[in-house]
């Protein structure tokens, strides 16, 4: 082994495949969490919108006789 590129290539390819596998696993984990955050954000937005639509008539009915 004199350190030539031909001898180092299989190890570099293996390292690249392992690195790519780790990147794919990390991306899958991030996407698995991200869509849940999007769903929660959408539910919060819909909830706030409903409060904004429903609450004013209720408040007006309790304040004004």
UniProtKB/TrEMBL annotation:
InterPro entries: DUF8029. Keywords: Membrane, Transmembrane, Transmembrane helix. The chain crosses the membrane at residues 13-31, 38-59. The keyword Transmembrane applies. This is Uncharacterized protein. The lineage of its organism: Archaea, Methanobacteriati, Methanobacteriota, Stenosarchaea group, Halobacteria.
């Amino acid at each position: 082994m004199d350190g030539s590129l031909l001898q180092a290539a299989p190890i570099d390819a293996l390292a690249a495949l392992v690195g790519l596998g780790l990147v794919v696993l990390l991306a899958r984990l991030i996407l698995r969490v991200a869509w849940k955050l999007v769903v929660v954000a959408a539910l919060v937005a819909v909830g706030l919108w409903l409060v904004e639509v429903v609450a004013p008539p209720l408040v007006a009915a309790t304040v004004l006789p």
